[in-house]
C-alpha cells in the first residue's frame, strides 16, 4: 500500500467512524486541515469531534491488530518463524511487550465473548477495557462452570463498568457471588480460600530496575508464607538500644530476602543444567577497561545492570558467584576459589563473631555473609583477620553507608559510625559479640 492509497484508506475509515456531517459542517475532511494548520482551530465542537473520531480509530486499529494476531496464531505463523507466540510477532514489529501480550490475549478470547468483541470492533471500547472484561470473565470461569448464557450475563455486568480497574473489582464480586450461589445449591465447589488453582504470582522489573511482585495464594500456602516469615520479621534494636526504625512492611521485605537467601544457600533444591542455580555477577575485566575500551557495566544474570557499590557487595559475599568477562562478553575467569571464604575460615569467623558482628544485631551465623574488611578486589586477603560476619541488612549498610569496620588490637571487629569529616570522630563501637567492659585500646 503506497502513501496515496493509505490516505484513501484512512479517509474511508474516518467516514465510517464519524456521523454523516451536515452539508455545511465537514468535520471529517477537516481532520487533515486541523493537523496541518492547528492555529486555524477556533471551534471547540469540531476539535472534540476530531478527537473522538481519532480515539475511536485507535480502538478499531487495536481490534484489527488483536484479530490479526489471533489469526496468525491459528495459522501457525509464530511456530514457523520459531517464535513462541503471536505476541512475539508484535514485539518484533516494535510493539512494547505488555501491549503485545494484551493484544494476543484479547484476540484469542474474542470468539468466546461476542457481545464484547462487537463493541470493540465498532471502536466503542478501548483495548485495556476489553482486556479487563476478558480477564474478569476468565477469573469467574476459573471458580465456577459458566454456560454460554451465564458467560454472556457476566460480560454484560462487567461491560457497564466505566474503567478497567472497576471491571476487575466487579469481576471479583461476581466470582464470589457465583461461587456462593453454586455451593448453596449443593454443588461440590472447592471453597475459594482453599482453591490452589486460582493461585497467581506476578514478578516484573520496573523502569527503575526494581523488582515488583503480587501474590494471590490459597489459605494454606499463605499460612506457610506467614509461618516462614514470622520469625524473620522481628524488630532488631539499634546499637544504642533504641527501637528498630524499620516499618512492618520493610521488615517483612527484609525477611522475605532472608528466606530466599537461606533457600539459595541450601543444597537440596532443583538444579539447572547440572548446577544449583545461584546469583551470578557478570563483571567486565579491568584489563579491558584499562585498554581504553568502552567501560563495561556490572550485570546480574536476571535483572541486568547494577551499581558498582552493589557489585562490590555481591563479590564480597561467599555464597554468590562472579564471572569475569572481556569486552565481548566472553568469560575470562570463573574467579571463585581464592576470593571466597572457605568453610574452615567461615567456621572460625562464626566462633569469633557468634552471628552478625554489627553492634546490637547478633543475627545467627547461618544468616550471615562473610565480608572482606579490605575488599578482595583491591588486594584484601581471604583470612580470618580480614573477614567479618554480617547479616544481609548490615552487610548492605557497611557497603552502602558511611559505617566503617576494622579489626582492633583485640582481633575483634570494631565500628566507626558515619560522621561529618570536618567534626570530631565519634567513639568506636565494639562488635556484637565483644561484651567486655574494657575499652579501646587496652581491650584484651
Ligand atoms: Zn562485604
Ligand atoms: Zn546484622
UniProtKB/TrEMBL annotation:
Coiled coil: none annotated. Keywords: Endonuclease, Hydrolase, Nuclease. It comes from the Bacteria. One of its GO terms (molecular function) is endonuclease activity. Residues 425-444 are annotated as: Disordered. Residues 344-396 form the HNH nuclease domain. This is HNH endonuclease.
Amino acid at each position: 500500500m503506497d502513501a496515496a492509497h493509505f490516505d484513501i484508506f484512512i479517509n474511508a475509515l474516518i467516514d465510517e467512524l464519524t456521523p454523516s456531517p451536515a452539508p455545511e459542517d465537514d468535520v471529517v475532511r477537516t481532520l487533515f486541515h486541523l493537523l496541518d494548520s492547528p492555529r486555524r482551530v477556533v471551534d471547540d465542537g469540531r476539535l472534540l469531534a476530531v478527537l473522538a473520531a481519532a480515539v475511536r480509530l485507535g480502538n478499531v486499529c487495536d481490534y484489527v491488530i488483536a484479530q490479526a494476531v489471533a489469526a496468525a496464531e491459528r495459522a501457525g505463523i509464530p511456530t514457523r518463524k520459531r517464535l513462541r507466540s503471536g505476541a512475539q510477532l508484535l514485539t518484533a514489529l516494535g510493539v512494547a511487550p505488555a501491549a503485545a501480550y494484551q493484544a494476543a490475549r484479547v484476540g484469542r478470547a474474542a470468539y468466546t465473548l461476542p457481545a464484547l468483541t462487537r463493541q470493540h470492533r465498532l471502536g466503542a471500547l478501548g483495548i485495556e477495557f476489553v482486556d479487563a472484561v476478558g480477564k474478569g470473565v476468565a477469573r469467574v470461569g476459573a471458580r465456577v462452570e459458566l454456560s454460554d448464557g451465564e458467560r454472556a450475563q457476566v460480560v454484560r455486568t462487567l461491560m457497564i463498568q466505566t474503567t478497567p480497574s472497576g471491571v476487575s473489582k466487579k469481576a471479583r464480586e461476581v466470582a464470589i457471588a457465583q461461587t456462593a450461589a453454586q455451593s448453596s445449591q449443593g454443588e461440590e465447589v472447592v471453597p475459594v480460600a482453599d482453591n490452589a488453582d486460582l493461585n497467581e504470582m506476578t514478578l516484573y522489573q520496573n523502569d527503575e530496575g526494581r523488582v515488583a511482585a503480587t501474590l494471590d495464594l490459597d489459605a494454606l500456602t499463605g499460612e506457610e508464607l506467614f509461618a516462614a516469615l514470622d520469625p524473620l520479621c522481628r524488630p532488631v534494636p539499634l546499637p544504642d538500644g533504641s527501637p528498630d526504625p524499620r516499618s512492618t512492611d520493610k521488615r517483612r521485605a527484609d525477611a522475605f530476602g532472608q528466606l530466599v537467601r537461606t533457600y539459595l544457600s541450601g543444597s537440596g533444591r532443583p538444579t539447572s543444567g547440572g548446577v544449583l542455580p545461584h546469583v551470578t555477577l557478570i563483571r567486565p575485566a579491568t584489563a579491558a577497561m584499562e585498554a581504553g575500551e568502552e567501560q563495561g557495566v556490572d550485570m546480574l544474570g536476571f535483572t541486568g545492570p547494577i551499581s558498582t557499590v552493589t557489585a562490590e557487595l555481591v563479590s564480597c559475599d561467599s555464597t554468590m558467584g562472579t564471572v569475569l568477562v572481556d569486552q565481548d562478553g566472553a568469560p575470562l575467569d570463573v574467579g571463585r576459589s581464592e576470593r571466597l571464604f572457605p568453610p574452615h575460615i567461615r567456621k572460625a569467623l562464626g566462633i569469633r563473631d557468634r552471628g552478625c558482628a554489627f553492634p546490637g544485631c547478633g543475627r545467627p551465623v547461618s544468616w550471615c555473609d562473610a565480608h572482606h574488611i579490605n575488599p578482595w578486589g583491591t588486594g584484601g586477603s581471604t583470612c580470618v583477620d580480614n573477614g567479618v560476619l554480617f547479616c544481609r541488612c548490615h552487610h548492605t549498610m557497611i557497603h552502602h553507608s558511611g559505617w566503617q569496620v576494622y579489626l582492633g588490637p583485640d582481633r575483634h571487629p570494631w565500628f566507626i559510625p558515619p560522621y561529618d569529616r570536618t567534626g570530631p570522630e565519634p567513639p568506636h563501637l565494639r562488635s556484637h559479640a565483644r561484651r567486655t567492659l574494657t575499652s579501646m585500646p587496652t581491650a584484651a
